[in-house]
Specification:
Layout: H1 8-42, H2 51-93, H3 108-120, H4 122-132, H5 145-266, H6 269-295
Helix pairs in contact: 1-2
Length: 299
């Protein structure tokens, strides 16, 4: 890859990508071969076929192969975009702006060089990579703007790293101090809860005693009021009995007064006249009934 101006590191990266692309290409070719084999095993079981049957089989095979090839092309394009994304991201970290020439992608001469490299030098390069990957190597130094920019970025990162380490030590000391304060606070809180528990227990005991005294006083008042109520009930019962006797006496007197009044009324002249009239009227009614019985036939 010296013809392309790559250093050793970038040459290895290009080889890794070519190895990845070759594995994907081999896998897709195997898939296409399996499509033909499946057609042979599933459809080519008879000795003769009509034109329509052959056309149908070829159309089906064409659709399958077209789908596989289209999928591979789409996947290759997306993979190249992801590769460019990695390169651009790394470049942006060092404030670089990469540019690409799309027309160089169809340079036949360069494409033939890549193909020739893949045919001849690819296996040799793989063997050299396997032998040399375990040996650490220093990156080549180039005196230029990029190298100076990298050195500045490395110095800035080292300075930032030192600041972060100092800040981390400060935070660790603050965390230890906070942890000690937390331990002391927990101990003080535990002691405070203990004292509060004792005080609360004493207060509860005092409150229980007060409630017991209150209940005893209420019970005494209830018994006193119960006795008073019993006496009042007894007085009420006696008053009720006396009232009943008085009512019976008054009713008896009223009945006697009614009888006396009736007796006096019967002794009056008006009552006697009314009685004589009623007697005469009854006799007349009886005489009329006798006459009617004479003239009316008996049933």
């Amino acid at each position: 890859m010296a013809e392309f101006g790559f250093n050793e590191h970038h040459q290895n990266e290009a080889i890794n990508y070519m190895r990845f692309a070759r594995s994907k290409r081999v896998l897709r070719l195997k898939t296409i071969d399996s499509c033909f084999e499946e057609l042979k095993d599933s459809r080519l079981v008879e000795e003769t076929f009509t034109v329509d049957e052959v056309r149908e089989m070829l159309d089906g095979l064409q659709a399958v192969v077209r789908g596989e090839v289209e999928m591979e092309l789409i996947n290759t394009a997306h993979t190249n975009v992801l590769l460019l994304r990695q390169l651009f991201s790394q470049a942006e970290k060092f404030y670089l702006r990469l540019q690409s020439d799309i027309s160089e992608l169809e340079n036949r001469e360069l494409l033939e060089q890549v193909a020739e490299f893949e045919k001849t030098d690819f296996k040799t390069t793989d063997k050299q990579l396997n032998q040399e990957t375990s040996k650490p190597k220093l990156a080549p130094l180039n005196e230029g703007g990029v190298s100076e920019l990298l050195n500045k970025e490395i110095a800035r990162l080292q300075e930032e790293n030192n600041k972060l380490k100092a800040r981390l030590r400060t935070i660790e000391s603050q965390a230890m101090s906070a942890l000690d304060d937390k331990t002391k606070a927990e101990r003080a809180l535990k002691d405070l809860k203990k004292v509060q528990g004792e005080q609360q227990l004493a207060a509860q005991s005092q409150e229980i005693t007060s409630l017991e005294d209150t209940v005893a006083a209420l019970k005494e008042d209830y018994e006193r009021s119960l006795c008073t109520s019993a006496a009042s009930q007894k007085d009420l019962q006696e008053n009720l009995i006396s009232a009943k006797h008085e009512l019976l006496r008054v009713q008896e007197q009223l009945a006697l007064a009614e009888k006396e009044l009736e007796k006096k009324f019967q002794q009056t002249a008006a009552y006697r006249n009314m009685k004589e009239i009623l007697t005469k009227k009854n006799e007349q009614i009886k005489e009329i009934r006798k006459r009617l019985q004479r003239y009316e036939p008996s049933e």
